[in-house]
Amino acid sequence: MKKIIFDHDLGSDCDDGGAGAILAKAHRDGLVRVLAVTHAIANPYGQYCMEAIFEYLGAEGVPFGYNLENDKCGEDDCHMSTKGPAERYYARVGRPFPERKSNLKLLRRVLTENGGKNDILLVVTGPLITLHELYRSGPDEISPKTGLELAKENIERIIIAAGNFQSFDIREWNIRCDAESALAVLNHSPIPILYSGNEVGGCIISGQSLADQPEDYPLRDCYYELNNAYQTNECTRNSWDLVVAYYAVYGDTGLWGRQDGYEVEVDEQGRTRFAPGGIHSYLVPDYSKTDEICAIFNEQMAVDNRK
Ligand SMILES: [Ca+2]
User: 10 alpha carbon to ligand 1 midpoint, in Å?
Assistant: First the structure.
């Protein structure tokens, strides 16, 4: 069974939640095993909501980590889509917010326990803050190895929503949000990376199915919360993060093209350069399939475990 680690930045945006729903259902249904879910940003409300989404969809036994390592993206605008939904969910179930445990310790433990099998897919839908902390970590009580050694020995591929492979002028958010981390992790990566540039998921507007879901479904609440902040009555969003989650679970389904064997480099402005001759890959959008993909994502985000 595929093993997946999911690192996201749900909070200032909501499509990470859609990606989480895809992964939660796949884990619940035995298609993949989600070994850990980590949260790149220091503002915790997004991870409170991600825990709620997994719980609501019936995905059990997944450990969650929080960014206790730095204060990057801790500001109030980093919980724009998640503070209200988190407060409403935990008030309704009558529990305090979940305990915040360290991303770094969780990742070092999960990678150590994997025993060097090099078979984990790391799905990333936010800035590279978590991975940068992991790569910089030294030996500790969990392992005598560095974080970079643990990653190289256990992570087969990184699948990430980042960059742009149509225009060098596009300054993509997940890179420019924390360029220091992005450059350290992405440029010259010894681990193969599959990129889904923002041209792939940006053209797919999904979430329409959430309007018909129960009002206490935390994913629905997050989508409405973000749209309300923008003063719309919709519950939709671009699907940047859903693409990588779906691809990680289902692989090549013909919904996108794929180019392999590239060297990819990003700069501190958030721009992407790529050329043949490396170990990395990128997805290519097929705009004739936009409606088909949108329907799939809407089905993936809907609640399907309530009688
Ligand atoms: Ca994201």
Answer: 6
Residue range 200-207: average pLDDT?
97
What residues sit around ligand 1, an ion, with C-beta below 5 angstroms? 9, 16, 125-126, 241
Number of domains the chain contains: 1
CA of residue 161 to ligand 1 center, whole Å = 8
Where residue 154 sits, what CATH number does that domain have? 3.90.245.10
What are the strands, taking DSSP E only, across the chain? 2-8, 32-39, 120-124, 155-161, 193-196, 205-206, 237-238, 257-266, 272-276, 280-284
Measured in Å, residue 241 CA sits from the centre of ligand 1 at 6
Is the pTM value of this prediction over 0.70? yes
Residue 305 has a pLDDT of 75
In which domain, by residue range, is 143 found?
2-301
